[in-house]
Each structure stands twice: as C-alpha cells, then as structure tokens.
Amino acid sequence: MKAELLVFPVLALIALFADPSSSIRLPDRTPAFTASDDRRPLKTAVFALGCFWRSEAVFGCLPGVVRTTVGYSGGSALNPTYKRIRDHAEVVQVEYDPKIVQFRQLLDVFWTSHDPTEVFGQGPDVGDRYRSIIFTNGTGETRMAAVSKEKQQAKIRSNIVTTQIQELGMFYAAETEHQKFELKHNPQLFQLLGFMPAEELQRSSLAMKLNSYAAELCPPDVQSRIDAKINNILDKEWPVLKDI
Ligand SMILES: *[C@@H]1O[C@H](CO)[C@@H](O)[C@H](O)[C@H]1NC(C)=O
User: DSSP strand E in the chain: where?
Assistant: First the structure.
C-alpha cells in the first residue's frame, strides 16, 4: 500500500479515485485483514450527508479507506435505532489509513457528494435524520472543517451552507441489515462474494468496495475495471470473486 503514495501523490480527487493499485485481496476464507493490517494506525472520521446507505457507498471506493460502518451520531438520546433514531443523524464512520488519504480529502468528498444547502434532508429523503454534519476530533480537525465550510460557502454564495460542525460524541453502529446495503440489494453481485458471515462482511474491504460499485459510486474507470473483472470471472464459470 505504501507504494501507492509514491506512484500517485494524492493531490486531487481525481488522483484519489483513479488509483488502480488499491485492489484488495480476500484470501480464501480467512478474515479480510491480517494481523499486520490491524496494527496499521488507522484514523476514524464520521460524516452525516443524507441517507447512510448512500453515504457508505460514497466513501467505500476511495483509496486509503479501509472500512466503513453506518450508524447514528449527533444527538444525545441513548441507543438510537433505525426506527427510533430520535435526535441523531444517519452517519457513516470511515476508517482510513492517513498515509494514503487525509481528513482534508475526505472533506472534499463530503462536499462533492451531497447538497449542503438543503435544509431538511437530501432530495427525496426528508427529515432531520438526513442533516449534514462534519464530526471532528480535536481542534485541528475542527479548524480544517471550518475552513472547508467557508470555502464551500464562498463557492455557493446564493444559498446558506447548513452543514454543522460538531465534536464527535457517541457513534452507534446501525443494525446489520443497513451495513453494505447497496451490495446486499444486488443479489447477483452479493453472490460473487460466496458465503460471507455478517461480521466478516462488515470488516471486508472488498465488500466495502463492491458496495460502492453496486451503487455506481466508484469513479468510471474503476467501475469499468470491476465490470471487466466480473465478466471475466463469469466467463470462466468461477463464481467467487477474490479481489477487484
Ligand atoms: C481522536 O483522536 C485521538 C488521537 O488523535 C485518538 O486516540 C482517538 O481515538 C480519536 N477519537 C475518535 C473517537 O476517533
């Protein structure tokens, strides 16, 4: 993974998206992450940008993003659920390798992936649970978030950016059925993973990436690369996808 940094200086979003070397291997039935992967110092970021099914897919195809989990944050009620989210928002928690992608770049993706001027939801998703929030951990991130919000506001001008910036409090993981939702709702694609227990599915970077592919939220070149890979597998009648 380190080589990626050298080959592709991550300066622009395009470079982030275009990185073809971020393929993820899922060795047979062993967990998606080896012990050495787990020792990598990962960082965590949390964003609210509308329906969390889509939010998860927005971040899942970015090089450097290792794991995504949808959940609830931003409110003060205890133990929110999908049916009783109360004062929380739908969020995605993004675990990333800071050597490959930085908080600043996640912010860029956040801004370009929803309409931060909408007041009570996103498009057809209406309600306070779909509000726009950047969660921060520490003054450094809070400052970066504030600066990026000012830039966004300067760009948009005619409308008010409603995005809130909030120190991250509790994150409650959502129910299993909401994790990798886009992938689960594409049975043909899901089948390509072979049988994967829920817990492994949750930790698998391959499943995370396929979830973005299912939502057509990988960049076009990555979408077509995965298309080709899948067609190739189907041609060979070898029905289990090992990497993309
Ligand atoms: C906040 O950052 C510190 C170190 O910078 C880290 O130890 C801690 O786990 C982070 N908290 C969250 C909720 O990510």
Answer: 43-49, 65-73, 89-96, 121-122, 125-126, 132-136, 164-167, 172-173
Measure 46 CA to ligand 1 centroid, in angstroms.
12
Output the pTM of the full model: 0.82
What is the Cα gyration radius of the chain? 18
Here the tokens at position 76 are 């003060």
Q: Is 218 designated active site?
A: no
Helices (H), 77-177: 103-112, 139-156
Q: What percentage of the chain has pLDDT greater than the value 90?
A: 68
Is 90 exceeded by the pLDDT of residue 238?
A: no
Q: Which atom of ligand 1 is nearest to the CA of 168?
A: 13
Q: Is the pLDDT of residue 22 over 50?
A: no
Strand ranges (DSSP E) for 162-227?
Answer: 164-167, 172-173
Q: Which residues contact 137 (CB under 8 A, 6 or more apart)?
A: 44, 45, 167, 168
Residue of 10, 45, 16 whose CA lies nearest to 136? 45
- Torsion angle, alpha carbons of 200, 202, 208, 210, to 10: 60
Average pLDDT over residues 162-166: 97
